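Researcher: Checking consistency across runs. Here is Regulator of nucleoside diphosphate kinase again:
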Amino acid sequence: MEVLTLERTLTELDHVRLLSLARRQRPGVAAAAIEPLLDACTVVPSRQVRPDVVTMYSQVLLQDLASGLRSRLTLCYPADAEPAAGFVSVLSPVGCSLLGLTVGAVARWSTPSGEARSAEVVALLFQPEASGDYAM
């Protein structure tokens, strides 16, 4: 899975928590996919992150580029993931592809069956930092 094709911005808090999470994971695809992103991203203080950047617990509106269908997803940590309810783990292929993107960017990932998928980040419906929550 390619996760470094676009510039990514992470908050300092998200970066520290995700680096710790990646180090605690057993070796595998999930941790291996997010580590290069953590190494290459731009890190900013939570209070300085732009309101159009997908951070942890952001709710995004995506439009699938193949079907045109729109969906809402909330990017979360693995313990909070409930895909059927729209809560997607940052360690999943789609979650990792969204982290740090901006509105208008295209997320690209592969499904577990190997199918290539892509979706545009149409809107950021909620971002904790934009709402004044810097500790989520």
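Researcher: Does this match what you'd expect to see?
Model: One thing to look at in this run: The helical segments are 12-24, 29-40, 93-98.
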